[in-house]
Amino acid sequence: MIDILERILTVTNLKTYFRTQRGTVKAVDDISFHLDKGEILALVGESGSGKSVTAQSILGLVKVPPAVVEGSILFNGQELVGLSQAEYRKIRGMRISMIFQEPMSSFDPLYTIGQQLMEVAKAHMPWTEEEAKEKIIATLKSVHIPEPEKRYDEYPHEMSGGMLQRIMIAMALITGPEIIIADEPTTALDVTIQAQVLNLMQELQSSYNGSIIFITHDLGVVAEIADRVHVMYAGKIVEKASVEELFNNPLHPYTIGLLTSRVKREYKGLDLPYIKGYVPSADQFSNGCRFSSRCPKVRKKCHEHLPPDLEIAKDHIVSCWLFEESEDK
User: What single DSSP character describes residue 65?
Assistant: First the structure.
């Protein structure tokens, strides 16, 4: 992490609600966090935790109305909540870019890689076509694409998933964004290629000095790449800490469950540990702690009231009644 921190993104009391026939779906429900320049922040949690909706809210990809987005998203001092799509287009793809999790389905099979990257360059940068091609090939080279001049004229089906993921990273880098949001970028890749992509992102983060929000369900990935971690569950952030602090001293029962559920060599031949139950549907959240129906340490209070955010150690915050000084014994 850089020595002098400069806050680039501040999210305060963000709420993203969807109206459905079954009622209001609170996909992201009153969360706050920040991102500093040059750091990698991981958002971790199971499917349905609200990680991707958080990213879409930052990027202005949630259609309002019918959805409702409230709170504040300050990007370099500029408020993003309430921006028109015309204003968002000056930011999205240029100053804030996104890497998606399915490289095989994210490219149009009818156009070459060069044509698709050229569209990004034309949309955001004042380059001539010759300048754009030169920049694109240089960016492909920076993400370790072999023979980038040749790949420029090839089609997506001619490349492996790992190569397409690196090209997607290149697409995100073309405009020199200040923030990259990576949504499960290693999920569809095998373990060897995952390691290559993670090493590449760390290398690029260092060389570009950009900031990354890394979305994943895999705490093993988090240990390799992130500076800080926010654990999300059912639309809430339940724990915040540095990577070292979270792994050495996990506090929330959900975080402990995620760490325990990682596959380890000593589990061979044994039943694998897991968190019982499922993330509740977003239209069925209880009035109390969202994790109460699955928590092994649940108390009566947990079912009735949402726990506050409690700072247990410096920059280590947990939302759990177990750590409230005045809790019922």
Answer: T
Cα 291 from Cα 280, distance rounded (Å): 9
The answer to whether the beta carbons of residues 273 and 260 sit under 8 Å apart is yes
Name which of 303, 182, 233 is nearest 27 in CA terms.
233
Cα angle for residues 310, 315, 319 (degrees, 5° grid):
25
Dump pLDDT digits (tens) for 82-118. Answer: 999 999 999 998 999 999 877 778 899 999 999 999 9
For residues 57 and 249, give the distance between their C-alpha atoms in angstroms, rounded to a whole number: 31
| Burial state string for 106-123 with b = 16 or more CB within 10 A and e = fewer than 16 | bbeeeebbbebbbebbee
SS3 for 110-124, per residue?
CCCHHHHHHHHHHHH
pTM above 0.85, yes or no: yes
Question: What whole-number distance in Å separates Cα of residue 29 and Cα of residue 227?
Answer: 24
Tell me the C-alpha distance between 288 and 285, whole Å: 8
